Amino acid sequence: MADRPREIPVLVERLTPREHEVLVLVADGRRNKDIARELGITDHTVKFHLAAVFGKLGASSRTEAVRRGLQLGLIHI
């Protein structure tokens, strides 16, 4: 079977600096509570930023958001 080229998602809307910061911390394995504490924001605000990240990356989970962030070169592990 022939290999199909992998489809690389295109980021239509850029992440804000805070959304990017949250994505980096998610990629580092941090929980919402830990992210909130580190950034000096509430758990609710972390969830808000994650929802925006999911929407912009077309992701439905933290793992998928990290995978897409890596594919797009937004984050590095």
Short description:
With 77 residues, the chain is mostly helical. The protein is built from four helices and no strands. Helix 1 (17-27) crosses helix 3 and helix 2 (32-39) packs across helix 3 (43-57).
Key attributes of the depicted protein:
single chain; 77 residues; mainly alpha; Arc Repressor Mutant, subunit A; 4 helices
Describe this structure in words.
With 77 residues, the protein is an all-alpha fold. The protein has a single domain, classed as Orthogonal Bundle (Arc Repressor Mutant, subunit A), CATH 1.10.10. Helices cover 57% and strands 0% of the residues. The protein contains four helices and no strands. The protein starts with 16 loop residues before the first helix and ends in a 6-residue tail after the last helix.
- CATH fold name: Arc Repressor Mutant, subunit A
**Gross morphology:** globular
Number of strands: 0
Compute the CA-based radius of gyration. Answer: 13 Å
CATH homology superfamily name: Winged helix-like DNA-binding domain superfamily/Winged helix DNA-binding domain
The largest β sheet comes out as:
none
Q: How much of the residues is beta strand, in percent? A: under 5%
**H/I helix tally:** 4
Helix-and-strand structural type? mainly alpha
